[in-house]
Amino acid sequence: MAKKCPFLPKNEMLEDNYKQRGLRNKLVKILRNKGIKDDRVLNAVAKVPRHVFFDNALLEHAYQDKAFPIGEGQTISQPYTVAFQTEKLEIKPGDKVLEIGTGSGYQACILLELGAKVYTIEYNKKLFETAKSFLPKLGYKPYFFYGDGSKGIPAKAPFDKIIVTAGAPVVPDALINQLADGGILVIPVGNREKQVMLKIRKKNGQLVKEEFDYFSFVPLLGEQGWNK
Ligand code: SAM
User: Fold this and answer.
1) CA 101 to ligand 1: nearest atom
2) What's the pLDDT at 6?
3) 101 lines ligand 1 (CB under 6 A)
4) Is 77 part of the annotated catalytic residue set?
5) Fold adopted by 18-215
6) Is 161 a residue whose pLDDT tops 50?
7) CA 221 to ligand 1: nearest atom
8) Angstrom distances, CA of residue 149 to CA of 133, 146, 191, 197
């Protein structure tokens, strides 16, 4: 596969060869050692090329377990964070999933590898346009939306699973309302510096909440997020 990195300048053709596949397998081992257990999630990480989201000069960073700038003041999330949130979503093939914060599109590719039907929304116009034109070239085809994902996508609700990939000040009511019964919402909530990861399951209209570790996301903006 020869692709250009669309996010950063100095694009050069990028391949997915044995070297990159080897680095992905090493990354999978790192994630397993950090506590990711779901083989389906780890297999998805082993499959999705992360280096194509990086400039050639930065390739050595692509398979380190680190977040990385993608321009516009935003980041491609750390692989551990992507795997952690994905594992908590308990994705089943055919699940209708809403992702808030498309960013690079990497997380959406992981969800698609798990057989989900993915609706992804991004607030930054440039990132939205870049991901929308780039992901299909890799063979990944989520439904792309531009706008304030803190309000969800009412016209497409309900969703079996909702993942928020930016730090929220509160759990937006809109997202609870758009979660199907039996559905799961995974969202980091806290202040601008750090957020606790919440998993909220809707069961017979009741909410069952679990709290996990602290993470550090860029802020969720918009009506039910932070003001700029
Ligand atoms: N999931 C992304 C990936 O795989 O690269 C990483 C997401 S990045 C950490 C957070 C993203 O959320 C940024 O692209 C940011 O522009 C976006 N964002 C922030 N507030 C938003 C909102 N209200 N609606 C949609 N996207 C939002």
Assistant:
1) 12
2) 61
3) yes
4) yes
5) Rossmann fold (3.40.50)
6) yes
7) 20
8) 20, 8, 18, 18
Distance 1 CA to ligand 1 centre (A): 27
Angle at 189 between CA 205 and CA 63, to 5 degrees: 115
At 126, is the secondary structure helix, strand, or coil? helix
Q: Is 0.85 surpassed by the pTM of this model? A: yes
Of the listed 77, 104, 133, 216, which one is catalytic? 77
The rounded percent of the chain whose pLDDT value lies above 90 is 79
pLDDT at 17: 82
What residues contact residue 188 under an 8 Å CB cut-off, 6+ apart? 164, 166, 167, 168, 195, 196, 197, 198, 215, 217
The order of strands in the sheet holding 117-122 is 143-146, 117-122, 96-100, 159-164, 179-190, 195-203, 206-215
> What is the rounded average pLDDT for all residues in the chain?
92
Cα of 155 from ligand 1 centre, angstroms: 20
